[in-house]
Design brief:
Helices cover about 70% and strands about 0% of the residues. By secondary structure, it is mostly helical. The radius of gyration is 32 Å and the shape is flat. The protein has two domains: about 110 residues, no CATH class; about 200 residues, no CATH class. Helix 8 packs antiparallel against helix 9 and helix 15 packs across helix 17. The longest helix has about 40 residues.
């Protein structure tokens, strides 16, 4: 045991040397450039091919004799930009790609199927389909590895990898893919939490009162049993969530269930962590009379409270970043799981990509308004129809303004309402218009 302790100390001294940090940084940077450079080159190449295929197949109709639709229906292949995609083996399934009118149903889905044989087996599919995500992961991974080197925790990182690799290797040997990913996720998330915590402590090491108090709170969160319980629960339960999903349900429901459960778990644990840490960090200092020493120093109450708040929010930020990395990674894993055979499986895959994992934005409808000329015309019509006002030589302006406001309000209200439908009257059962004027 003493020999191992001495070995650890020697290796720790080596990792702290500037020469080691520079050499390790250059090596890791070159490794990231090599790996992610290949991924990016392949990703952009496949992305361009998918777009070209999808654009060429868009609107193609077999009944109209369109070139690509006829070639696809008769031979199972299509030649676009000098490259032939597909094979004769697709002829047995190609009918599913056309609707009853002979038009291609999902050009982008076919494009993905055509270039699937060009995807490297070692690369995750979501990185090959989304160049932007590949860029983001490349930058994050490079920064993550360089931060490990310069914060001087390379040795703990290696030990974490070795410790995580043992159960991962056993699960791989047993063929338990989900358990393997769960153990790998626990190790990755735990070390990421430690790394971010060390980074925050370094940022708060500046000689300012607020930062000093915040640094104390972050250190307390890593030592307090109350805080560590919620952190450990998050690091352990998040990677285990995919194991408890029912494999017999459609993929889109599994992805939706995981998103719901993971976000709920993160929210509950982060809320409990915030509540207990916020109360404990002040209450324990009063109980242990540490507050006496703080208040006798040139520390204002405002700086004290702001520092406590900043420390708690920093811990929450670390937790949310770790949870976000976990949720994003496992969603990418779940979306590539196999689906049922046939049309239902194709619909399930399309629903995952275009309904579940699709960002949406809300917009307000634009309502038309009556112009001043139209308002004056309608006001004059109302005056002519009203016998009391029609006999007046000069209608008061206040009356005209009130009539104009009511007309404008009624015009806007009519655009937001749907007229009643008499189901007993033939031809009246129609869908109300969903568009708005203007």
């Amino acid at each position: 045991m003493l020999a191992l302790v001495n070995l650890y100390r020697r290796l720790d001294l080596i990792q702290r040397k500037l020469v080691f940090r520079v050499a390790a940084s250059v090596l890791l940077f070159a490794l990231c450039v090599g790996v992610f450079g290949v991924l990016l080159a392949k990703s952009y190449d496949l992305h361009g091919q998918r777009l070209a295929i999808a654009q060429a197949l868009q609107g193609q109709n077999y009944n109209d004799g369109d070139l690509y639709a006829v070639s696809l229906r008769q031979t199972g292949t299509v030649t676009i930009a000098g490259r032939t995609y597909g094979s004769a083996e697709l002829l047995d399934q190609i009918d599913r790609a056309f609707d009853d009118e002979g038009e291609i149903l999902n050009p982008l889905g076919l494009a993905r199927q055509f270039v699937a044989d060009q995807e490297p087996a070692w690369a995750p599919r979501f990185l090959l389909e989304q160049p932007g995500t590949t860029w983001m992961l490349a930058l994050v991974a490079t920064a993550w590895l360089l931060l490990i080197v310069w914060i001087q925790i390379t040795l703990p990182f290696i030990l974490t990898v070795l410790g995580t690799g043992l159960p991962v290797g056993v699960c791989w040997w047993l063929g338990e893919e989900q358990a393997m990913l769960a153990f790998a996720g626990m190790g990755l998330l735990t070390f990421t939490f430690v790394l971010l915590t060390r980074g925050v402590l370094i940022l708060f090491s500046r000689p300012y009162q607020v930062l000093a108090v915040a640094q104390t709170v972050v250190k307390e969160a890593t030592r307090s049993r109350v805080s560590l319980v919620f952190v450990i629960l998050l690091l352990v339960l998040l990677p285990l969530l995919p194991i408890f999903l029912d494999p017999d349900t459609p993929l889109r429901f599994r992805v939706q269930t995981f998103i719901s459960r993971s976000l709920t778990l993160t929210y509950v644990l982060a809320a409990c962590l915030t509540l207990f840490l916020s109360c404990a960090t002040v209450a324990f200092e009063i109980r242990d009379r540490q507050i006496w020493h703080l208040m006798t120093k040139p520390l204002t109450r405002l700086n004290y409270l702001v520092g406590k708040w900043l420390g708690v929010m920093s811990v929450n930020l670390i937790v949310l970043v770790v949870a976000g990395v976990s949720i994003f990674t496992y969603i990418q894993y779940l979306r590539e799981l196999p689906v049922a055979a046939g049309v239902s499986g194709i619909d399930d895959r399309i629903a995952v990509d275009h309904e579940v994992l699709t960002a949406r934005t809300g917009i307000r409808p634009i309502y038309a308004q009556l112009t001043p000329a139209e308002l004056r015309g309608r006001v004059e019509q109302l005056i002519q129809r009203d016998p009391d006002l029609a006999n007046l030589d000069d209608v008061p302006r206040s009356v005209k303004n009130q009539m104009a406001k009511e007309l404008q309000l009624n015009y806007l209200t009519s655009q937001r309402s749907i007229p009643p439908v008499d189901l007993q009257t033939p031809g009246s059962n129609q869908t109300a218009p969903t568009s708005f004027p203007g």
